[in-house]
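Need a sequence for this fold. Nothing fancy.
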């Protein structure tokens, strides 16, 4: 499938979804939201894809919503008329949920500014690697808006309530080093090495047992949102019983006994 506002590439089990409106620092408009969701469906249907990288073209990851389009609305007019349902959410907001619920690992390669909904989309990924030129802002308040794209959910769980309140109430911009200190990003790397570093990690993960990694992701976020420790222990054992039944588990044991690298096939 061809796209106008994104680029989707695939290699060695890794799909890379690049936001491609560089003249706007990859600001979200309706078309980019729609095409990103179409790309997510393409990824879901492709069993050869084991990891997804999300990044931006040009100087920015994403500067948030396209204010040119939003500014054409009359004050007080809702973004879309009628009761808000999943089908009426803007594409960028739906994408945040799709990234979190995707049954494969997701990595944000933050190459520049990640502001507003762009920051929220980065937070929706499982792992974030940042260029040393990356910057982050919950800029919504400076535009008279509340944080969206899951920001109030993801950021609060990463940095705690007090720091999340500070970042959201002020809209302050923080650099990559501060984002790493706060635990917002996993790692900061030199700008020119960002995609190589991210791809290397993605390929390491893609070489693992995909069904097991899917179960790991389920377990992490079940405990993140729902379970107390005893419910989580029981849930882990339920998922472990599924992992033990896979061919990849047998391959993991045999490769250990035979002192060789495992070759996981995803079954």
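Here you go.
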């Amino acid at each position: 499938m061809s796209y106008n506002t994104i680029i989707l590439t695939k290699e060695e089990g890794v799909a890379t979804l690049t936001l491609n409106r560089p003249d706007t620092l990859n600001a979200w408009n309706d078309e980019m939201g729609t095409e990103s969701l179409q790309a997510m469906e393409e990824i879901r249907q492709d069993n050869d894809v084991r990891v997804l990288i999300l990044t931006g073209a040009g100087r920015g990851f994403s500067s948030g919503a396209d204010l040119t389009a939003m500014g054409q609305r009359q004050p007080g007019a809702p973004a879309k008329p009628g009761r808000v349902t999943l089908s009426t959410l803007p594409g960028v907001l739906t994408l945040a949920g799709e990234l979190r619920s995707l049954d494969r690992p997701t990595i944000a390669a933050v190459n520049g500014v990640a502001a507003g909904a762009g920051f929220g989309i980065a937070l929706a990924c499982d792992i974030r690697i940042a260029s040393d030129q990356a910057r982050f802002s919950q800029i919504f308040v400076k535009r008279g808006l509340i944080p969206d794209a899951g920001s109030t959910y993801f950021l609060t769980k990463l940095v705690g309530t007090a720091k999340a309140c500070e970042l959201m109430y002020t809209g302050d911009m923080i650099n990559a080093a501060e984002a790493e200190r706060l635990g917002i990003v996993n790692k900061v790397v030199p700008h020119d090495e960002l995609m190589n570093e991210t791809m290397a990690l993605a390929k390491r993960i893609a070489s693992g047992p995909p069904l097991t990694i899917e179960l790991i992701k389920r377990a992490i976020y079940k405990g993140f949102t729902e379970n107390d420790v005893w419910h989580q222990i029981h849930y882990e054992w339920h998922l472990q019983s599924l992992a033990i039944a896979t061919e990849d588990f047998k391959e993991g044991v045999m490769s250990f006994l035979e002192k060789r690298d495992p070759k996981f096939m995803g079954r």
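For context: The first strand starts at residue 6 and ends at 11.
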